[in-house]
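ok here's the first one, seq then struct tokens
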Amino acid sequence: MISLSLKGGGFLGTIDEADLQLLVDHLEEESDTDTDYYVTSDTIDVLRESGASPGLVGLLERAVGDSEGVEISWKKA
């Protein structure tokens, strides 16, 4: 499983390899070792339309909440 957290702390939950691959395929990475992304409500809409699981969408919606966006990071457990 893969753990998602708010960058700088705050565990969000776990996702599977398919959801991780969706993040990697659709979000910008600054390098091959980059494991963090900036997520907005528009980002979540794109991921939803691209087949993100309800679990991933829910985690990201809770993380973004009413803010403009948040930085998340992932780590393989």
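and now the second one, same deal
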Amino acid sequence: MCVNKYSVDADVNALLRQMAVTCPEKITWRDDRSYMYANVASLDVEAKEVQLVGYIRNNYLNTKRLLHLTGIEAQQGFKIKQIEIVQDPCPLKLSKREVEKVMSTSKA
């Protein structure tokens, strides 16, 4: 005796319909924190220093915060010594109003 009878086609259609109407939830941590797409420019193991080059997204980094590096086994946060803002090699064309909006929402 089979209690759970189902149709493969009906189940697949129901699954696809559910996937089509489901919207992903917004990632809330990105609103409050900055994150960086970076490459390691230099690594000095003796001095325990890492120099990163990349793009900071969302908010500006603050030198008073600790930094977590993904892929590093240390369970501690790294202290930011210095942040340099350089000319973007691929700049966006923003109006003055858009630049003011970005700078006013920064939580630096």
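notes on #2: The chain has a mean pLDDT of 76. Strands lie at 35-44, 49-57, 66-67, 78-79.
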